[in-house]
Amino acid sequence: MNLKTTTSMALALGLLTGPAWADMDAAKAFLDAEIGDQSTLTREEQEAEMQWYIDAAQPFAGMEIKVVSETITTHEYESQVLAPAFEKITGIKITHDLIGEGDVVEKLQTQMQSGENIYDAYVNDSDLIGTHWRYQQVRNLTDWMDQEGADVTSPTLDLEDFIGTQFTTAPDGKLYQLPDQQFANLYWFRYDWFTDPDIMAEFKEKYGYDLGVPVNWSAYEDIAEFFTGREIDGVEVYGSMDYGKKDPSLGWRYTDAWMSMAGMGDKGEPNGLPVDEWGIRVNENSQPVGACMARGGAANSPAAVYAVEKAIEWLNKYSPPSAMGMTFSEAGPVPGQGNIAQQMFMYTTFVAPLVDSAEVMNEDGTPKWRLAPSPHGVYWEDGMKVGYQDVGSWTLMKSTPEDRAKAAWLYAQFVTSKTVDVKKSHVGLTFIRESTIQHDSFSERASKLGGLVEFYRSPDRVRWSPTGTNVPDYPKLAQLWWQNIGDAMSGAKSAQDALDSLCSDMERVMERLERAGIQGDLGPVMNEEKDAEEWLSMEGSPKPAIENEREEPKTISYDELVASWQ
């Protein structure tokens, strides 16, 4: 299953070197070496799908295409194994660049602003759906597949099999992006410690309730306190893990999940309406009208302040001292070192490297840890979004020439095809197809993935969602989050002051968009400012401060939780 193994295999078979040639022999060599029975298609169906790619690619043979994505295990596999195989099979040379997520957004933004064709296709988060829909600078895939791209759209694409297309579809009902990888933020914990009779008894004696999966932040806080400083198996343990470096990834931590888990936004799935997890309010026409409480937004509301203050408190009290200086990518693998008791949100893209860590895996290949839904804060209510799913998705810019867009679209479909998706999912564990999730090979592997398969097969899965369409310009607004919240993390500002600055900065961007009229009747139409108390007195978000923000702690048995998913 490991990337090194598959890459070595591909090298041995000559798939990564030599001149480009496009025929079924190359496809068969790839299927033999890489896919085998790890596909939802029969071998005959796999070959038929490959033959279609060979035929559809003929007009583009010899063309050199550049695509880009963030650096995660799934995309490493695509770049190192699938791209070379695609070249051998189709004759189209693919350069699949791997860069930081923030850099992907920056390149995309530059292409939007300049019209220069920097990349022929991007894997960028569906968090940009509001941007893509409003600016209309990306190809609408619904029309593309029916019109210009019809001759290069696979008859076996099967859009209904994708689990994330609701997140890449705009309010106009059109599909703007094709999911390539998807992963959730879930609660991660040391199951072996949580089920140790001595530890359980000590916790019960100290706190008066059972040690288990925390349902709310009060319980998470107690568990973090309980484990921090404790020595287990000769190792000093920390009760929580997080990151706090002033860096673009700091913003994702809040816009992705933290604010929604705290309960800042409104009820509504996949995203709160009219106020979402960014604190942005929209009107009945999906036009942004404000982010500060004075305009009906919630980005500086009591719930937002509570979210930031708790994050800072727990980072300082219960995480390793180095965590404050870490980024998303640096912090993600740390639980694999064996000294972390729990993590509020584990992006499941980090599960793939965790299963290779001897410190957190048993000798029989089963994990010492489990995954469960993250706990929610005191402002959270039933019917609200409960967490985040990253849906990295193929996006074709209108500035890309049609022939290059067609060739890139063939590659995008190839790496998400039914032929390869089961194998790709075993490598990266970033599921995008229902048929893959239900594949027998994942039933066999489920016990070694700590609840990941059970989660993706559960009806609960749909309650985790990416950023929605309230955000009118993701690249411009996202950078404001890490810059302002970074001031709170460093102690330069209070949480309230940092969030006041954040919402004001977001509103200035939206005001500029309104004045420019660049997004037409989809762009912001800002509310007039009024006393925030008027909004706080109304039902929904922004919500007034809760006097006692520490609610009664509540936990649940992990085994009971998983049973409820069956």
Give me the oligomer status: single chain
Report the end-to-end length measured between terminal Cα atoms.
27 Å
How large is the count of helical segments?
A: 23
Q: Structural class per helix/strand content? A: alpha+beta
Helix coverage percent: 40-55%
- The percent range for strand residues is 5-15%
Shape descriptor = globular
In the CATH hierarchy, the architecture of the domain at 3-182 and 392-453 is 3-Layer(aba) Sandwich
Number of strands: 13
Say which CATH homologous superfamily of the domain at 3-182 and 392-453 is assigned.
Periplasmic binding protein-like II
The parts where pLDDT drops under 50 for at least 5 residues are 4-21
Rg of Cα set: 24 Å
Mean pLDDT: 94
Biggest beta sheet summary:
7 strands, mixed
CATH class annotation of the domain at 3-182 and 392-453 = Alpha Beta
What is the secondary structure topology, with strand pairs?
Elements: H1 3-12, H2 24-35, H3 43-57, E1 64-70, H4 73-90, E2 93-99, H5 101-114, E3 121-125, H6 129-135, H7 141-146, E4 178-189, H8 191-194, H9 197-207, E5 213-214, H10 217-227, E6 231-232, E7 235-236, H11 248-262, E8 281-282, E9 288-290, H12 302-318, H13 328-331, E10 342-347, H14 351-354, E11 370-372, E12 389-395, H15 402-414, H16 418-428, H17 434-437, H18 440-445, H19 452-457, H20 474-490, H21 495-516, H22 532-536, E13 555-556, H23 558-565
Helix pairs in contact: 1-4, 2-3, 2-4, 4-16, 11-12, 11-20, 20-21
